């Protein structure tokens, strides 16, 4: 099978301190890709940087960044010395709450919009001039099966992921004459901190999401990201949906509760 060598390229990963972002950073480093890792939890990024630089021949820069604050994103990007970014992994995102929209906190709703939508388009806009200079530009957006399937308790989360999807699809059209690919990755149930964050630390509720079946893990999604990044230069994967074997759609999961 043909596989493009992506070593020596530079990737920016948002939300890289845990879950899919961290797994993507590990996968990229193992491919010899230099990294700019951004997240709020800088101590986690520090230890990830140390680990990966020891293990692989890569250079890693880390940035403490809250993706709900657009002014911080502007400052952070400004502070990056080498902005010659080839790959952008738009991973930072979250769900907060699963109550009916009109019962859920409005602040939670706005926070999802800030991080999942505003943060993503601001970061992409700021990095775009550099990505456009690359011969191997690639923007990978972490969307979700929730982008395609509405569910009760997901009004804002589903809407933000649809936003990501349409944004990605539109810029792919805008970039057809440029050497920049755009891929939307749409995972189903991935066992990360996602549900713990959504249920505000309620471990039991979070664990129940992944009970009775084998869910996806962050490494599975990093594996899918690796696949889309290493295709031949003329091949663009526009969208990839990944579910657990026992998951049929965003909300239909077969659970063996015996
Ligand atoms: C997360 C998938 O089904 O919890 O993106 O909304 S779901």
From TrEMBL:
Residues 35-62 form a coiled coil. SUPFAM superfamilies: NAD(P)-binding Rossmann-fold domains (SSF51735). Belongs to the short-chain dehydrogenases/reductases (SDR) family. The keyword Oxidoreductase applies. This is L-allo-threonine dehydrogenase. It holds the Pfam family adh_short. The keyword Coiled coil applies. Transmembrane segments: none annotated. It comes from the Bacteria. InterPro entries: NAD(P)-bd_dom_sf, Sc_DH/Rdtase_CS, SDR_fam. Keywords: Coiled coil, Oxidoreductase.
